[in-house]
């Protein structure tokens, strides 16, 4: 899964990104590392892995991971190709979800590109660029589809859909709030357009250190962002990028104390990762054994063979069945053998919908 960090210049994107990658760099067991400086990998905190690690006497723990891409340089006029505008927009097209950083902190030493701190105006500036870019895509698609629509019923139907989405965008509405689909075919066309304003968004309201403890409730600008986000079904999370950068330098013990001092339970980054998981409808299933204990990211509703395919495509192709025990059942039993004796380890087939925290063992034909 890939998340793109966007926002106007000087709002705290790089600060947030750097703290993410610094925190991520410590996750030693992560199986791949990246060379691209704009891409950082962070692991998804999951206490269950440590517990399983002890149960299975393994030191190798591989958490699930999310990739963050720092998409700097989005400015007014990007969709018209200003700056490296189009290139940035192309980068956004590749991500699964957007983290949109908005400045809610006041600091006279840090210049705002538009002269004052007004998060709603900032959001609108960025979202307009995304909208323009989407409109361009739709127009190109409409021109192409219109040609075949004269003697092709399918194309005519798609053309009508394209026109409806275009009208929606022209009213300044994000593609993700469009709901005029006739059937599933139209929904799948819609996904294939991969519109920027159709992607899930998390607004990261960057506040001052003092405003963190009450989750930004005392800051009117944050409230305004929350109100706005509701209208497009987006999430908001409150962060202080500067503090995150400091936290990222600390070890686990120091971090705990530091957070306690601030009256916080988890760092902003942890909250961000959890929010992204929720927003994208993701869950983790687990595999456990002596060689390693590991979390695998899947989408909610995924069936056992597709979940197995996350490990290896052979597992999906040759899927026979899965041995499954829930994390809770395993913990209550104490050992895998005891869980088996109690009948808590189930054999599930191709139609089984995998749940968060399922511990899975796949049987497959090669
Ligand atoms: P970007 O252009 O959006 O990537 O912004 P940067 O991350 O480079 O931040 C711009 C400036 O704002 C830097 O000088 C940061 O130190 C500062 N900054 C970032 N986050 C905060 C914050 O939460 N509070 C304050 N006071 N300054 C911040």
Automatic annotation (TrEMBL):
One of its GO terms (cellular component) is cytoplasm. One of its GO terms (molecular function) is ATP binding. ATP binds at residues 10-15. Residues 281-364 form the TGS domain. Keywords: ATP-binding, Magnesium, Metal-binding, Nucleotide-binding. PROSITE patterns: G_OBG (PS51710), TGS (PS51880). Residues 1-259 form the OBG-type G domain. Its cofactor is Mg(2+). It comes from the Bacteria. HAMAP family: YchF_OLA1_ATPase. ATPase that binds to both the 70S ribosome and the 50S ribosomal subunit in a nucleotide-independent manner. This is Ribosome-binding ATPase YchF. It comes from Suipraeoptans intestinalis. The lineage of its organism: Bacteria, Bacillati, Bacillota, Clostridia, Lachnospirales.
């Amino acid at each position: 899964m890939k998340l793109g960090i966007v926002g106007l210049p000087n709002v705290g994107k790089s600060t947030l990104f750097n703290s993410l990658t610094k925190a991520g760099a410590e996750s030693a067991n992560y199986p791949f590392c990246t060379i691209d400086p704009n891409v950082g990998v962070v692991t998804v905190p999951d206490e269950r892995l440590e517990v399983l690690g002890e149960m299975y006497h393994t030191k190798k723990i591989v958490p699930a991971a999310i990739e963050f891409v720092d998409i700097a340089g989005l400015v007014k006029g990007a969709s018209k190709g200003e700056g490296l505008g189009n290139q940035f927009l192309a980068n956004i097209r590749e991500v699964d979800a957007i983290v949109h950083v908005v400045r809610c902190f006041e600091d006279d030493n840090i210049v705002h590109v538009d002269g004052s701190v007004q998060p709603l105006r900032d959001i609108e500036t960025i979202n307009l660029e995304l909208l323009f870019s989407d409109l361009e895509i739709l127009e190109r698609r409409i021109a192409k589809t219109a040609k075949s629509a004269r003697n092709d019923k399918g194309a005519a139907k798609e053309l009508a859909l394209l026109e409806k989405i275009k009208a929606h965008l022209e009213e300044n509405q994000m593609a993700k709030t469009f709901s005029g689909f006739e059937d599933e075919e139209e929904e799948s066309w819609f996904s294939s357009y991969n519109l920027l304003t159709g992607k899930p968004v998390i607004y990261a309201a960057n506040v001052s250190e003092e405003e963190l403890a009450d989750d930004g409730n005392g800051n009117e600008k944050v409230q305004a962002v929350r109100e706005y986000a509701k209208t497009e079904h987006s999430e908001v999370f409150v962060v202080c990028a500067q503090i995150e950068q400091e936290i990222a330098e600390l070890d686990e013990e120091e971090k705990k104390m530091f957070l306690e001092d601030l009256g916080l339970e988890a760092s902003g980054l942890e909250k961000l990762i959890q929010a992204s998981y929720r927003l994208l409808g993701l869950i983790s299933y687990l595999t456990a054994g002596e060689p390693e204990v590991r979390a695998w990211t899947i989408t909610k509703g995924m069936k056992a063979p597709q979940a197995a395919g996350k490990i290896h495509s052979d597992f999906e192709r040759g899927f026979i069945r899965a041995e499954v025990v829930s994390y809770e059942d395993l913990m209550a039993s104490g050992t895998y053998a005891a869980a088996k004796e109690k009948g808590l380890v189930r054999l599930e087939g191709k139609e089984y919908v995998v749940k968060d925290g399922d511990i899975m063992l796949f049987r497959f034909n090669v």
